[in-house]
Amino acid sequence: QVQLVESGGGLVQAGGSLILSCAASGSIISINRMGWYRQAPGQQRELVASITSGGTTTYANSVKGRFTISRDNAKNMVSLQMNSLKPEDTAVYYCNADITVLRGRYGYWGQGTQVTVSS
Asked: According to the model, what pLDDT value does residue 35 have?
């Protein structure tokens, strides 16, 4: 059984900062790519940022230069530093990880954490 637990969401004013964290636990053999997605009301879930086990990062154009993704492989954690937040960043943010367990390799999701940016 694998679990992804997110923390760090909340309410912030435009221009402010938040840090999201996600910890993976369970019968993990290895974690490949980890990432953050978000879903605003009435919108499709979209990739915000991802990072490979080797540290290669990818960002959505809308967050480049404002958000930074990082991971701690020893702790099976991924974080998202969000700066210069805008009202359009308001969404539920989900952690996602591509994890190898005994049975194979699967994608896992966290439960989501709400980020609200007020104008």
From this structure: 98
Asked if residue 80 lies in contact with residue 106, where contact means CB atoms within 8 angstroms, the answer is no
Distance CA 49, CA 40 (A): 16
| Three-state SS sequence of the chain | CEEEEEECCEEEECCCCEEEEEEEEECCCEEEEEEEEEECCCCCCEEEEEECCCCCEEECCCCCCCEEEEEECCCCEEEEEECCCCHHHCEEEEEEEEEEECCEEEEEECCCEEEEEEC
Q: Which residues does 47 contact at the CB level (< 8 Å), separation at least 6? A: 35, 36, 37, 58, 60
Q: What six digits make up the tokens of 84? A: 């210069």
Query: Mean pLDDT throughout 89-117?
Result: 97
Dump pLDDT digits (tens) for 9-64: 999 999 999 999 999 999 999 999 999 999 999 999 999 999 999 999 999 999 99
